[in-house]
Amino acid sequence: MPIDPAIAIGADLGSNEFAWETSDVQLYHLALGAGLDDLSYLDDVAPQVLPTFATVAATFHATEAPRVSFPGVEIDLARIVHGSQEIVVHQPIPPSGKATTSTRIAEVWDKGKAAVIVQESTTVDTDGNPLWSARSSIFARGEGGFGGERGPSESVALPDREPDFDVTTKTLPQQALLYRMCGDRNPLHSDPAFAKAAGFPAPILHGLCTYGIVCKTVVGAALDADAARVKGFRAKFAGVVYPGESLRCRIWRDGSQLLVAVTVPERDDAPALADVVVTLA
């Protein structure tokens, strides 16, 4: 079914009530590589919570692959990759709780050979207090050409000086298999045959796993390992990462925010995330 922006844009995708426990938070942090150097993320009673947990909280216990089936949008999962992600936390995420997320399609862009579908969501606790807001996009290869608007093209300029921090984090060969336990069962990250059919030589790391690892790296390197200092975190997914590769994070202080360049050193610093901005609380 071709994309119909007249139906899709503004479509209400409904609300989702969910709950999470301390053990879910611990598993999420373990899936990002937390260990003996990050025990504050693994405390049994009150672990600190990375703001990126917001990207998995509502679907943490999902066991089926996601579907891209929305009003005016019907796309084969094999054509989909994550385009961008932004999280804004309105208060530190508690280590356990209940919440409701409401989501809508905000934009649909026609990039010619591809389409970009942008979703916005808000999450509130049981008393209606805002917990976090999110904006994300998916990039659908081969789904453009439907006559829609092309959309904006924006980039973040990095400072013309040496970074304040330059940190390299090694991922595990089984990193994607660990991360899929957080609710993202897309076979692109676990099934070699599916990955090859989608145009990749091997399963790739979840973009949101890279996103979470980078957030944890930035918090550890530049924010005294205090996750509560992060107000917002946004990034574009600029290239694939294969489990077992490293992520190099060059971090610049820039007023009330941090700017980050994320590359894969094993492939001549190929880009992994771009336009990464960490807004400080």
TrEMBL record:
<feature type="domain" description="MaoC-like">
    <location>
        <begin position="157"/>
        <end position="258"/>
    </location>
</feature>
<protein>
    <submittedName>
        <fullName>3-alpha,7-alpha, 12-alpha-trihydroxy-5-beta-cholest-24-enoyl-CoA hydratase</fullName>
    </submittedName>
</protein>
<feature type="region of interest" description="Disordered">
    <location>
        <begin position="143"/>
        <end position="165"/>
    </location>
</feature>
<dbReference type="Pfam" id="PF01575">
    <property type="entry name" value="MaoC_dehydratas"/>
</dbReference>
<feature type="domain" description="Peroxisomal multifunctional enzyme type 2-like N-terminal">
    <location>
        <begin position="18"/>
        <end position="142"/>
    </location>
</feature>
<comment type="similarity">
    <text>Belongs to the enoyl-CoA hydratase/isomerase family.</text>
</comment>
<dbReference type="GO" id="GO:0044594">
    <property type="term" value="F:17-beta-hydroxysteroid dehydrogenase (NAD+) activity"/>
</dbReference>
<dbReference type="GO" id="GO:0003857">
    <property type="term" value="F:(3S)-3-hydroxyacyl-CoA dehydrogenase (NAD+) activity"/>
</dbReference>
<dbReference type="InterPro" id="IPR054357">
    <property type="entry name" value="MFE-2_N"/>
</dbReference>
<dbReference type="GO" id="GO:0004300">
    <property type="term" value="F:enoyl-CoA hydratase activity"/>
</dbReference>
<dbReference type="Pfam" id="PF22622">
    <property type="entry name" value="MFE-2_hydrat-2_N"/>
</dbReference>
<dbReference type="GO" id="GO:0006635">
    <property type="term" value="P:fatty acid beta-oxidation"/>
</dbReference>
<dbReference type="InterPro" id="IPR029069">
    <property type="entry name" value="HotDog_dom_sf"/>
</dbReference>
<dbReference type="InterPro" id="IPR002539">
    <property type="entry name" value="MaoC-like_dom"/>
</dbReference>
